[in-house]
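Below is one record:
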Amino acid sequence: MKKCSKCGVEQHKEEFGKDALHKDGLRSACKRCNAIATSAWRERNPEKAKAQIAAWRASNKAKVLAYARSYYKANSEVYKLKSVAYRATNAESRNASRIAWGVANKEQIKKKTAEYRAENAAKCRSATVAWRAENKEKVRKYNAAWSAANPESARIHLHNRRARKRGSGGKLSSGLSVKLFNLQRGKCACCKQPLGDNYHLDHIFPLALGGANEDSNMQLLRKVCNLQKHAKHPVEFMQQRGSLL
């Protein structure tokens, strides 16, 4: 047993902290009294206390991490409940914070995403396929909105996709429709009438007949002309229209 120098209560030695400077290897004041004195000192000296804690944490990172892990493990259920409650009551602010962080770190996110996709190509593909299968309506609406907002890119994408399905190879370059529109001076390559807004990007020599999916094999036609041409040989089609002998 040992008597506390502060409260004067005789207590078991386990109630006293260790101190190598004392003969018995224990502090003169009990743990409770020391805790009260430390708390009072911290209230009087908040900045010094904060600096001391920060310095100790910096020099004892392993201990801090081990303690945090053990504490979280022992209180995991409590943390889960708190997390769920916080997310439910702060959904709006969390979304705003997430969006703001994403905007501020756009390049960093882009780089990390590209690295992850490169390292996990097969996993990303299967996840995308699974998500599309479960969200067909969302995909349809997104594609429709994107095509309406990007008609030129949509035309290129459609032809490249068809070529891949046929195994024709080749890939049309971005901005091809604008380039052809300027080269053809806004007129249909078949009837020489103004193309209008709903013109079609057409393979001169159809893919069905072995044509290449390349920029040099493309032209712009009015919708009606392209529907009439369909997959016909270009010479045969023009002969039918009386443009060639």
User: Anything to note?
Assistant: The mean pLDDT is 91. Residues 93 and 99 are 10 Å apart (CA to CA).
